[in-house]
Write a structure and sequence with these properties.
alpha+beta; Immunoglobulin-like; 5-stranded mixed beta sheet; 2 helices; elongated; binds copper (II) ion
């Protein structure tokens, strides 16, 4: 009788922990799925924006912004009906994050603080395409010769 109860308890504990483990794995998978998309690191300085990449795939794009300058900066994105920005400013040495949903095309990134964009804190990103368009032009090579 006692032995049976103990076995039953042990079995229940085992089942519960298995269920919890399953839930934990499911949560991890869900989290991994949520972060899928393009991540672009943006470093801000006076007065420039440096992007880890200037191309993206349509979908969710996360801009991870680091202020490597001496002044407060921020980040805004505009284009194709999108107009979003990091609320407020990012202090020097600080970080910010901007998650946007982008379709295909070109978007402009700027620092919306004062006239920073005019001073150079402006760049653009565009859809990455695997195909490169060839013009089919025949190059009539000018023979310069004498290379060797
Ligand atoms: Cu700025």
């Amino acid at each position: 009788m006692h032995r049976l109860t103990r076995t039953r308890i042990a079995l229940t504990v085992l089942l519960v922990s298995a269920a919890m483990l399953g839930a934990a794995v499911a949560a991890l998978v869900a989290r991994a799925g949520a972060t899928a998309g393009t991540n672009i690191t943006v470093t801000e300085r006076e007065y420039q924006l440096t992007l880890s990449r200037k191309t993206y795939k349509p979908g969710t794009v996360t801009f991870v912004v680091h202020n490597g300058g001496k002044l407060a900066h921020s980040l805004a994105i505009r284009g194709r009906g999108v107009s979003q920005r990091i609320p407020g400013t990012i202090r020097p040495g600080g970080h910010g994050k901007l998650v946007v949903h982008l379709s295909g095309g070109t978007y402009t990134l700027i620092c919306p603080i004062d006239s920073h964009a005019k001073l150079g804190m402006k760049t653009s990103i565009h859809t990455s395409t695997a195909m490169t368009t060839t013009t089919g032009r025949t190059t009539t090579g000018t023979t310069t010769g004498g290379w060797g």
